[in-house]
TrEMBL record:
InterPro entries: Kinase-like_dom_sf, Prot_kinase_dom, Ser/Thr_kinase_AS. It comes from Ensete ventricosum. GO terms for molecular function: ATP binding; protein kinase activity. This is Uncharacterized protein. It is found in: Membrane. Its main location: membrane.
Amino acid sequence: LSFSKRLHIALGSARGILYLHSEANPPIFHRDIKASNILLDFKFVAKVADFGLSRLAPGPDTEGIIPRHISTVVKGTPGYLDPEYFLTHKLTDRSDVYSLGVVFLELLTGMRPISHGKNIVREVHDCFHNVLKKLFLEESLA
């Protein structure tokens, strides 16, 4: 796929998640954002699918305060799971955003989230830092 098509898919996916979190009434936490749950129509328009693990976002309590998370058993797909959600069992809209970020990395790199014991997030993070170190070293030696 061309870069512009990949960007189109990424933006469409982000719009879908934004709708779930901000415009759906009540808002929805998807809980299993991954590449296979982003369907494409014949024009490559992204559609968020598979709401089997989704949860409704919390509503206001008796004092009108809206909790920021749901405490729940961790569900989702390894490689896409938000580490904070995995550790705390607190599901938030940020958990979906993290998973969407993994999908974006897949679109950009063509890598799977977990492959041959390597995690795409860690690999991209390490590569980015190595490039920064190299640039900094070259600049300081010039």
